[in-house]
Amino acid sequence: MKPVPYPTIQRFPLYLEVIKQLQLAGIKTISATDIAQNLGFTNIQVRKDIGYTGIIGKPKIGYNIKELEKVITSFLGWQNTNDAILVGVGALGSALLGYKGFEDYGLNIISGFDVNKKIVGKKIHGKKILHIDDFESQVKLLKVSIGILTVNQSSAQQITDLMVKAGIKGIWNFSSENLKVPDDIVVQRENLSASLALLSVKLSHKFKTKQ
Amino acid sequence: MKPVPYPTIQRFPLYLEVIKQLQLAGIKTISATDIAQNLGFTNIQVRKDIGYTGIIGKPKIGYNIKELEKVITSFLGWQNTNDAILVGVGALGSALLGYKGFEDYGLNIISGFDVNKKIVGKKIHGKKILHIDDFESQVKLLKVSIGILTVNQSSAQQITDLMVKAGIKGIWNFSSENLKVPDDIVVQRENLSASLALLSVKLSHKFKTKQ
DNA sequence: CTTTAATCGATAAATATATATCGTTATAAA
DNA sequence: TTTATAACGATATATATTTATCGATTAAAG
Ligand SMILES: NC(=O)c1ccc[n+]([C@@H]2O[C@H](COP(=O)([O-])OP(=O)(O)OC[C@H]3O[C@@H](n4cnc5c(N)ncnc54)[C@H](O)[C@@H]3O)[C@@H](O)[C@H]2O)c1
Ligand SMILES: NC(=O)c1ccc[n+]([C@@H]2O[C@H](COP(=O)([O-])OP(=O)(O)OC[C@H]3O[C@@H](n4cnc5c(N)ncnc54)[C@H](O)[C@@H]3O)[C@@H](O)[C@H]2O)c1
Question: Does the CB of A48 sit below 7 A from strand D?
Fold first, then answer.
């Protein structure tokens, strides 16, 4: 099997969003053209992406929308709930802890960890905040494999090491630290600066060429 | 001039991060190899990226670190402060309002806007929260061109329309709505789901192949 | 029943991006 | 001073991704 391109994987959640929306409108079938028009992509690209899931569409009709939702969700591994823990319950960490939207992505944040005595022991959005000293035992006990990292940059590597030691396999890194991890650990950087860089450059380019 | 690839633009902030770190350590020159090793890239890629800035390096030495920082920052348009406003001062919006790190990216969030009477009129992290009814006049008055969108998905398109009407040229969209905008408006989606999709797939792939 | 048009899926071509090669240059060691 | 080497920058190759082409299929219109 040929590997699925990363850009394709990143577009899948966008397709799910369109699917969700059209399903609310009562629509039963959906074509690559429908999705493409909604998102501003080419239908060829969307059709090729969908092809990776193995679903069979009907000419003139498209795909069964329920089935398409299922195969994409399944491809992403979002059909089952994946447990995660979050470290660093500050401004950003609290927002993530309380975000309901993660349910759609099969992500369930069990609890948060911090050092700050003012919040340890409390609940935020119904999630218990525990002390970082209990992190390793809790993760091992609950067999959590995903860690969300929202501590200050200065603590990021240290907490990463702790996560690895506790058995975390995937780290979603919201800090700007370049984390060092063993080969078998996956780090996904949530890179606000990269996104802002694109916005900045596109904007300045527009201003230069337009006027 | 050939356009600079988007992937290159997205890597530039990572290079700045390494530069910042090495500068703290007192280092005066930096090679493409240094940066590459820090980030796990190839030195060829880093050298090519840097080439787009036009900076001249010295064989055996690399680049003057101060100069390299300057040309990358300048390329991104981050040498001057760009004013922005934020709409939707909820959990995520508050976190972004208070985030000091944006200073490094030349981004200055002037104020926040919301409809919630409980927060309108207050200050969050020193930033005034105004009512959305005053949005258009304020934006026109202050000539802000960047808008940060952190409202509920259901209000996202409506606020986008308002931003466009008020003269906003670039929208940083944190909602999962597929925004419709005129051609001359730049929308940058901050796509948590795309990032999570990659993490999910990489993880499941690791588990499948490793064990 | 035949024709038309939309869309699929497979294959091919084009474009974009990453990696490799190579001659040159500047430093530091011999 | 000569030699060895790290790194630059330009060019070439390889890989990845997107876009185009085309025959086949199906539903709907004529
Ligand atoms: N706030 C934002 O909008 C934003 C945007 C982009 C990136 N980030 C990054 O996200 C991270 C968090 O940002 P924030 O604004 O929420 O900061 P914050 O200071 O509000 O939160 C950091 C939290 O981490 C906790 N912490 C620190 N060291 C710890 C440790 N060793 N163990 C456990 N907990 C620890 C602190 O007690 C605090 O609660 C930072 O790395 C920041 O650069 C934040
Ligand atoms: N919280 C997260 O971690 C997170 C993660 C990813 C994406 N998002 C997205 O970011 C957005 C905000 O998320 P949140 O968790 O901060 O939600 P939230 O409910 O805490 O905040 C939304 C804010 O927008 C305000 N608002 C709503 N309609 C408005 C309008 N018409 N004009 C002005 N203000 C308005 C609300 O009063 C509220 O303060 C959502 O679209 C969400 O999907 C959030």
Answer: yes
Interface test mutation site (partner A, options B196, B204, B205, max chain A beta carbons within 10 A): B196
* Residue A64 shares a structural domain with residue A98: no
- Ligand 2 site, residue B92, Cβ cutoff 6 A: yes
**Radius of gyration for the alpha carbons in chain B, expressed in angstroms and rounded:** 20
B61-97 pLDDT, tens per residue? Answer: 999 999 999 999 999 999 999 999 999 999 999 999 9
Tell whether B98 and B183 lie within a shared domain.
yes
Do A35 and A113 lie in a common domain? no
Q: Distance (Å, rounded) from C-alpha A204 to C-alpha A175? A: 27
Residues B65 and B91 in one domain: no
In a domain, A129, yes or no: yes
Query: Is A205 a member of any domain?
Result: no
Encoded tokens for B194? 């795309």
For chain A, the farthest-separated pair of C-alpha atoms sits apart, in whole angstroms, at: 62
Is residue B137's pLDDT more than 50? yes
Residue B61 distance to chain A (closest CA, Å):
24
Packing angle of the helix pair B6-24, A192-210 (nearest 10 deg): 120
The last residue of one of the domains, among B76, B98, B121, is B76
Note the CA–C1' distance, A8 to C13, in angstroms.
Answer: 20
Q: In sequence order, which residues have a C-beta less than 8 Å from that of residue A92 and are 6 or more positions away? A: A150, A174, B92, B95, B99
Q: Which of B76, B102, B125 is the last residue of a domain?
A: B76
Q: Are residues B34 and B135 in the same domain?
A: no
Shortest CA gap A134–chain B (Å): 25
Q: Are strands B29-30 and B63-64 parallel, antiparallel or unpaired?
A: antiparallel
Same domain, B124 and B176: yes
Q: Tens of pLDDT along B13-36?
A: 999 999 999 999 999 999 999 999
Q: Give me the domain span that covers residue B123.
A: 82-193
Q: Shortest CB distance from B190 goes to which of A18, A195, A210?
A: A195
